[in-house]
Design goal:
It contains 1 helix and 5 strands, in the order ββαβββ. The chain is of the alpha+beta class and 92 residues long. It has one domain (3-82).
């Protein structure tokens, strides 16, 4: 199942799962843009570009092609997802 992170201002707000069919073209090839358009149609106040395909690890050499599997609160820099840095408040 494909998963898309909904990103606003660089922060993942939610992660949506869709079936393969809405993102498959006439030849059965999965296209990220079709999944983005499908989700934007489901949520009319959103933009297709705000949905970024995120991946569970699959194979080698790069099991996470976009840095990591995105979760709510993660950061998107335009090419990869990262976890936010946590400041424990301790003086150094």
């Amino acid at each position: 199942m494909p998963y898309f992170a909904y990103v606003q201002n660089g922060f993942v707000q939610k992660v949506e799962r869709i079936e393969h069919d809405p993102m498959s073209d006439a030849d059965g090839v999965k296209q990220e843009a079709l999944g983005q358009a499908f989700l934007a149609a489901c949520y009319p106040d959103t933009n297709p570009a705000d949905y970024i395909l995120t991946f569970y690890p699959e194979g080698q050499p790069d099991p996470y092609p976009r840095g990591k599997y995105a979760g709510v609160g993660d950061l998107w820099d335009g090419s990869k997802f990262t976890s936010p840095l946590v400041n424990d408040g301790a003086a150094k």
